[in-house]
Amino acid sequence: MRILHHLPLSPQSRLARLLLGEKRLPYELVIEKVWEQNEAFYALNPAGDVPVLVEESGLVVPGARVICEYLEDVYPDTALLGRTVGERVEVRRLLDWFDRLFQQEVTVNLLGEKVEKRLFGQGLPSGNVLRQGYKNLRFHLDYIGYLAETRTWLAGPSLSAADFAAAAHLSALDFLGDINWKHAPSVRDWYARVKSRPCFRSLLSDKVSGITPPPHYADLDF
Amino acid sequence: MRILHHLPLSPQSRLARLLLGEKRLPYELVIEKVWEQNEAFYALNPAGDVPVLVEESGLVVPGARVICEYLEDVYPDTALLGRTVGERVEVRRLLDWFDRLFQQEVTVNLLGEKVEKRLFGQGLPSGNVLRQGYKNLRFHLDYIGYLAETRTWLAGPSLSAADFAAAAHLSALDFLGDINWKHAPSVRDWYARVKSRPCFRSLLSDKVSGITPPPHYADLDF
What we know:
The structure is a homodimer.
Chain A: E1 3-6, H1 11-22, E2 28-31, H2 39-44, E3 52-54, E4 60-62, H3 64-74, H4 85-119, H5 127-150, H6 161-175, H7 185-195, H8 201-204
Parallel strand pairs in A: 1-2
Antiparallel strand pairs in A: 1-3, 3-4
Helix pairs in contact in A: 1-3, 1-6, 4-5, 4-6, 5-7
Organism (chains A, B): Saccharibacter floricola DSM 15669
Subunit structure (chains A, B): Homodimer.
Protein name (chains A, B): Glutathione S-transferase
């Protein structure tokens, strides 16, 4: 069976789960406590982080971006990277946007401070960092809202990996209760459409020790 | 004419230049002073950073990773992302390694402190950050050395975008005189091979105001 080494709240792992689910590729989840720096896991992925996909053939595919390109190369039937050259550039531009900008400006400042710092034994969240994270989140919600208002899906006319990358980050922050949907109605409408895809179900039933998501987290009609 | 908006010492811009050069695609360079936050440039790339490729057709391709995938999609003749599924996973794993790990652990701490901080008016380099950068650089040189000793090129039997990604970062640090090649002979031998490619010439003649590279920077037999 195909295995995905992951962490429930890792947006990169969530992206891999959504892509596998949307392409209807069955997989088993294995939680990898990356902070324990397990040697066997470093042998799979020298970078030491999740997600890592291990195919039944034994092929090891580490990292969400690598998994995304790999799945599109090998299982192209449900195209998630766009069909035309221009669409592919736009999907990948947004993948890069969420993987680098959103990750550094929002996810590291909120999820990193509240969850990862504790797991890695690095102390309490910093108020200044959280404030910067919330400020950056408002900018990013405006940008996602602008895309959602002017296009059918974030990268254009078709549902793509860009939607799943954005939804992966937002869903992890939503689990922490960090998203005020009332202030971002266009983002909420787009997110409700992504959230209702069958591939999203596994994310909505995630359990994380010590964190209770808000009641709307798993609600498709929030 | 195809245009690449770039900065001479940006490793991501250098990667784009090397890929274009290796694929023998002619282009003109335009320097983009990203710290001036030029509105016309934000219209090309909302992320506000270099490189940005603009094709003669007007198609805008922002970001080194996006450019890399785009060039391979559209100009596949000189394959730089590997030929088999396994090779493509390994090339992209290393692209991810240099784009995220090397960038955050080494490049930001050295090039970021010494050059970008000045350009963005953020003050003097921090000794602690530089020390951490040099420490991380030693680990990364060991890893690159291990790959160079066990394979023909970094990702396997063929020259690939992984070699250019690594060389793009190392060449920018070498411009600053930050690489002690004597302590990394296997990396030096591999780098000499990459450096002697015709696509590398444009990097070796770069001029940057206020920084004089060490004499060995442009020497193919260093």
